[in-house]
## 1
Amino acid sequence: MLVTAGPTREPLDPVRFLTNRSSGKMGYELAHAFSGAGHTVLLVSGPTAIDVPDGVDFLPVETAAEMHAAVEHHIGRMDVAVFAAAVADYTPAMVAPEKIKKTGERITLELVRTPDILGSARESFGFAGTLVGFAAETENLEANARDKLRRKGCDLVIANDVSKPGIGFDSDHNQVLLVFPEHTEALPLATKHDLAHQLVQAIFETHAVKRC
Ligand code: CTP
C-alpha cells in the first residue's frame, strides 16, 4: 500500500516557504490502519508533527516535486495507492538564493503549477492498481468529486466539505462522502482514527471487486 500524507512545503528563499493547514492526521491514520490489517505500507509524507506509525515504511519529502518523484519511483510495486496529501497546486517560479529583503510596500510572487501526482498515476506512471484520491471542496461536493474521479482514473474519491467547521483540515474529525464510479455513500461524522478503519474496509472491498 502506498499512502501520501501531509502538506508540502514550497520554498521561497532559504528561510521561507508556502504551505497549507494539513496536519497529516488522516493519511497517518490510514497508514496505521493498513499496517494493523497486516499490509506492507509505504508512507510518503510532507512535514508533520506526528510520529510515524510502528511497522510503516517512511519516506519524508518536502516539496510537491519531491513527492512526485518519490511516488513515481515506488508506485509500480504497489497494489493500492491512496493520495491523502494536501499537495501545493502552485510553487514559486524561482527560489531566491538569499533571504528576500524588504524593499517597497508591495511585492508580487510568481507561482507556477506543480505536477499533479494523482493525475499522473494512470497514464504517466502506468499504475494499474486500486487508486484512491481525496477531494477537499467548498461547494458542489459530490459533483466535483465525481468529476475528479473520472478525470484522474480513480476507483474511489473520498470527499470532504472543507467549508464546514470542525472537520477535515487540521481537525481530529472528518465526515466524508465515498464517491465510486457507479454510486455514492455518505459516512457519518467520526474521529479520523475510527474513519480510517472504515476507509480501509471500503478500499479493500474496492480492491477485491477490481481484481475479480
Ligand atoms: N493531488 C496530487 N498532486 C497535486 C495536487 C493534488 O496528488 N499536485 C491529489 C491530492 O492528494 C488529492 C487529490 O489530488 O488526493 C485532490 O486534490 P485537489 O487539489 O483537490 O484536486 P484538483 O484536481 O487539483 O482540483 P482543484 O484544485 O481544481 O479542486
Note: The chain has a mean pLDDT of 95.
## 2
Amino acid sequence: MSKTFFIQTFGCQMNEHDSERIAGMLDEMNFKENPDRDKADIIIINTCSVRENADNRFFGTLGLLKNLKMNRPDLILAVCGCMMQQQHIIDTIKSKYPWVDIIFGTHNIHEFPKLLSNILNERTKAISIWEDGEEIVEGLPSKRKHKFKAFVNIMYGCNNFCTYCIVPYTRGRERSRKPEDIIKEIRDLVDDGVKEVTLLGQNVNSYKGDENTHFPELIYALNDIEGLERIRFMTSHPKDLSDRLIKAFVDCDKLCKHIHLPVQSGSSKVLKRMNRKYTKEGYLELVDKLKNAVPNIAITTDIIVGFPGETEEDFQDTLDVVDKVRFDSAFTFLYSTRKGTPAENYEDQVPEDVKHERFNRLVEAVNSISAEKNRMMIGKIEKVLVEGLSKTNKELYTGRTDGHKLVNFEAPDNLIGEIIDVKITESSTFSLIGHAVNL
Ligand code: 5AD
Ligand code: SF4
C-alpha cells in the first residue's frame, strides 16, 4: 500500500500554490493524499508569517503533533513556507520542537523529494533553507486543487519593503519568469481542461519577463491562447499600475473585470510611513481612471488598521476612502508587529483596544458596502464558471462571476467546467444565489 500525506496550508495563494507543487512532487513519488491528517504517514505544514497570530497557531499545531509522533514514531513531520525563512523560527523549532523531521524554505521547494528520501532511507533529520533564490526552477509538477482553474506564478519575491511587511525578507528579491515558460505552462493547463488562470505575484505590475514583455504585454499574449477563457491576477501595487494595464482590461476579453488593489490605509501620512509611495488622492485618482475605463469593474482591497502613529483623523481618511471607492470586498487586518521590519521599532505603536475598536468600525463599513453591492446584483445575469457542488448545500452548484463574486446556483448536472449564464435572485454580504438561464 502506498504511503499517504496531508498538507496544511496557511496564508496566501502563493502558499496554496506552493502546496499544490509539493502535492505534485509527492504524487510523482507515489504518495497518496489523505484527508485525515492524523492517519497520514507524512504531515507537511506550509506556514505564513505575514501576521503574528499565524506564528502562534503554527507553534500550537506543532505542540499538538507531538503526541501523534510519540504514538507513531514513523510519522514524518515536515514544515516549510515563509516562517522557515526566518532564523529565529528555525532556532525555536530546533530547540523546542525537536520532533520535526524536515524543514525547508520558500526558495528550495524543489529539494523536498531529496530531503524526504534522506529521511525515508537513513532517518536523518533534514534542514535546508536557501537565503535567496536567484534562479527560477521550472518544470515542477503540480497537483491542482481545482480541475478547471489554476494558479500560475509569473514572478517571485518583492522589492517594495513596505515597512510593516515581512515578505521581502521571506520571499527574497523580485524575479520574473520568462514569458515563453508562462505561456507553455498555461497551454499545457488548458490541454488538461483548465479554463481560468490566476497569475500570481506579490506585485504583478512590476513583472518584467524580457525587454518587450512587461505585465500588460503578457496579458495580451495570454489573451490569444486558444481554449483559455478567463485570466485573473493578484496582487497589484497601486504605485505601478500603468495606463497600459488599464487599456488591457478594455482590449482583452478574457481578462476578468476585477482588480485586487490593496490600499492599506487612506491616510497619506500613514501611507508615507508605510513606504507605499502613493497618496490618498493618488489612489482615488487611480480608482477613478479604472472605473471610467472599465465601468462595473469590481475592486477589492487589503486594509491595515492601527499602523504605528495612526490617529483617529488618519483612520477617518481610511473610512473616507472606503466610502468613496465602495470596494466590492476588503480583507481587513489589525496591524501586527513583525520581527525584522522597520515598523517594529516605531515608538508610537497604537494600543490594542484602540486598534480593535477601529477595526470593528471598519469591518462594519466594509461589510455594509459589500452587502449593498451584492444586493445591486439581484436581477442581473452573470457569467459563471461552474466549479462543482456547493460545499454548504449539495443541491446547488458553485462558481464565481467575472467580478469574482461567489455564487451558489441551481443548474443541470452536466455543466461543470462550463461558463454559463446565471440569473442572480438573492444576495448576502459575502455571496449570491441564483439559477442557470439561457441554456
Ligand atoms: N500586519 C497586518 N497586516 C499585514 N499585512 C502584511 N503585513 C502585515 C502586518 N505586519 C497585510 C497587508 C497585505 C496582506 C497580504 O496582509 O494588508 O496586503
Ligand atoms: Fe509586502 Fe509591500 Fe511587497 Fe506587498 S508590496 S509583499 S505589502 S512589501
Note: Residues 352-375 form the longest helix (24 residues).
